[in-house]
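Review box. Two proteins, two foldings.
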Amino acid sequence: MKLELGAFAEITRSFSSQDMSNFARQAGTVPGHYSTVPGPLIGALFSYLLGVKLPGRGTNYLKQDLNFLQDAPLDEPLTARVTVTRLRPEKHLVDLATVCTTQTGTLVCEGRALVYVEDVGKE
């Protein structure tokens, strides 16, 4: 995918109570009852998009700011999107807006990401 202003990538995923138990085990805590999706799992959706889709392979995360506005419900589709807002090829930097919404369009999280990409401006 070509890096240009307005380019975006997104993923839609639901998290189940089993996903929450697996997350707790991997974090080294005792699985409990969860009614919402923890912020780190939403952040992981952005990490996936940046590292695999846009900009993709070779991307180095430099900075991320996330503002959580609503709880993200379990078992409901969440859509995470990253959108290129600024390209700085002379410094190999890409600024992106990050948003996560529910199936009904409720904004769960918004923020910004700054990544280093060696080949800014190439396909």
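Next protein.
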Amino acid sequence: MSGGGKDREETLRSFDEAVNMTAGELEKWLKTEESRGAGQSDGSGESVGHASGRRIVDLLHTRKADLTDDDVAHMRKVVGYVHRHVSQRPDGDVTDTRWRHSLMNWGHDPTK
């Protein structure tokens, strides 16, 4: 673990606010067809968000003291993605939309 104490703490706080699903909820969600069908593929057949979701589950299981700089950088990426996507909320009921499914891959359920 290295420096950037204040930035690191701010990132951890923002991540905790952005990711409103538990590790268990996210793991269960990532096994669904809806989860696999949302987001852009990285060429491997798995969407970027789905891969990020698996990493978020790992991050949620990691003690804060054990997070690496790379982990914190991914957390920052998650916060940015969630904030950008939440601001693009479509009109109407979002329960069964790709928009919501994509956000859920990143650990955020906008209906919570």
